[in-house]
Design goal:
By secondary structure, the protein is an all-alpha fold. The protein has one domain. The chain is built from eight helices and no strands. The longest helix has 27 residues. The protein is globular and about 50 Å long.
Length: 222
């Protein structure tokens, strides 16, 4: 399931992009908020205690490095990790910087998935809206269809690749807590950006509050 569900989430996102307009759908925006709340809650409830239980004083440094890394990645991706695409839709050039940014983000998030089933669900829920917005942008652009397919396939494979590397490269076991700390920093930045992002007219409406609370409660109860 660690390998299948992330692939399936990108496929679902692609299908949503084909039949819906994810950027303008209220339900879609609420799903993004729910995913941010769930991902943040799993990070706080499970990942943070796990890495700090190691007693390593450098964990905090790596969490902050992960947060800074995500800021750099979002400079390249223009915010795709939290559901926004600001690239020129009239371009016909392959968005290599976008792929590199999303690839690094997805690869790293795949490493700790074997530690908690709840995190797997959080990543999957998060990837669906991101994949849908990404696919919608690519399909509406002037990029050739085979390049769009290549982009989405590579994007889909990166998270399972990270999980596979964590399971098969013993040398990485020495740095598991540090990699998890990096991922925590990444998740903290992405999830809080989604949650605290201003709604239309800078209002924090009841629907968004409700799905955020639901995401937190679900992560806690599970």
């Amino acid at each position: 399931m660690i390998y299948i569900l992330p692939l399936l989430s990108v496929l679902i996102g692609f299908l949503i992009a084909l039949f819906l307009k994810p950027n303008s759908s209220l339900a879609f925006k609420l799903l993004l908020s729910f995913s941010g709340a769930y991902l943040l809650s799993v990070t706080v409830f499970e990942l943070l205690p796990e890495v700090y239980n190691t007693g390593d004083a450098q964990i905090g440094i790596f969490i902050m490095l992960g947060l800074l890394l995500q800021i750099v990645l979002e400079f390249l991706s223009k915010g795709a990790e939290h559901g926004h695409i600001h690239h020129d839709e009239n371009t016909s050039n392959f968005p290599i910087l976008l792929l590199i940014s999303l690839g690094i983000h997805s690869l790293l998030e795949g490493f700790p998935l074997s530690t908690t089933e709840h995190l797997l669900y959080g990543v999957v829920i998060h990837k669906i809206p991101v994949a849908a917005i990404l696919a919608a942008f690519l399909l509406q652009s002037k990029i050739k269809k085979y390049k769009v397919a290549l982009f989405l396939i590579l994007f889909a494979l990166m998270t399972p690749l990270g999980s596979w590397m964590a399971a098969n490269f013993e040398i990485l076991n020495k740095y598991t807590s540090y990699i998890s700390a990096l991922v925590i920093g990444i998740f903290l930045h992405v999830s809080t950006t989604i949650i605290f992002e201003a709604s239309k007219n800078h209002t924090f409406n009841a629907s968004k509050l409700a799905v955020i609370v639901a995401g937190i409660l679900l992560a806690y109860l599970l």
